[in-house]
Specification:
With about 170 residues, the protein is of the alpha+beta class. The chain has one domain: NADH Oxidase (3-Layer(aba) Sandwich), CATH 3.40.109. It is built from 6 helices and 4 strands, in the order ααβαβαβααβ. It has a 4-stranded antiparallel beta sheet with strand order 1-2-4-3. α2 packs antiparallel against α4. The protein starts with a helix and ends in a 20-residue tail after the last strand.
């Protein structure tokens, strides 16, 4: 089977991570895959905030947790790295473009033996005053919206269960 199709079929969300840090070279490869995502009109407008600094990661986790209806103490499931995708709101396709970035990064992570999970509430996190202050501190200017967080790390368990696909989802003529 084609390696890309295999990765698409086998990738699963990881919700339990070892504390071991992912090497910079691997983080860079995953981020690069995100940068090669398709984008409306080829504008390449989404940006990625790659967070491996523990203090910043923990600050993002606490901020995300404020908006988590399950009130988990760590909505990032212990993942040591958070790749935040932000969309430039002046581009009409920013939400879709940012979503494609996340998808590429999750597939790249899987292909490199790294677990990943899409974590919501990036929008709320960066609408919060603390989130805005973090972007300003990093020199990120513009009208950006948090699309999602892609957490990555080494899985504590392998999730090999591939549920069957639901019926009646494709219509042809």
């Amino acid at each position: 089977m084609n390696e890309i199709l295999k990765a698409i079929k086998e990738r699963r969300s990881c919700k339990s991570y070892k504390p071991d840090m992912v090497p910079d070279e691997i983080i860079e490869q995953i981020v690069e895959a995100g940068l090669f995502a398709a984008s409306g009109m080829g504008l390449q407008s989404p940006i990625i905030l790659a967070v491996s600094d523990k203090d910043t990661r923990d600050k993002l986790s606490a901020l995300n947790s404020k908006y988590d209806f399950k009130h988990r103490p760590d909505p990032f499931y212990g993942a040591p790295v958070v790749l935040v995708v932000l969309g430039n709101k002046s581009v009409p396709t920013y939400l879709y473009d940012g979503s494609l970035v996340i998808g590429n990064m999750m597939l790249a992570a899987h292909s490199l033996g790294i677990g990943s999970c899409w974590i919501h509430r990036a929008k709320e996190t960066f609408e919060d005053e603390e989130g805005k202050a973090l972007l300003e501190e990093l020199g990120i200017e513009g009208d950006f919206e948090g699309i999602a967080n892609c957490v990555i790390g080494y899985p504590t368990v392998e999730n090999n269960k591939i549920p069957p696909r639901k019926e009646d989802r494709v219509y042809t003529k």
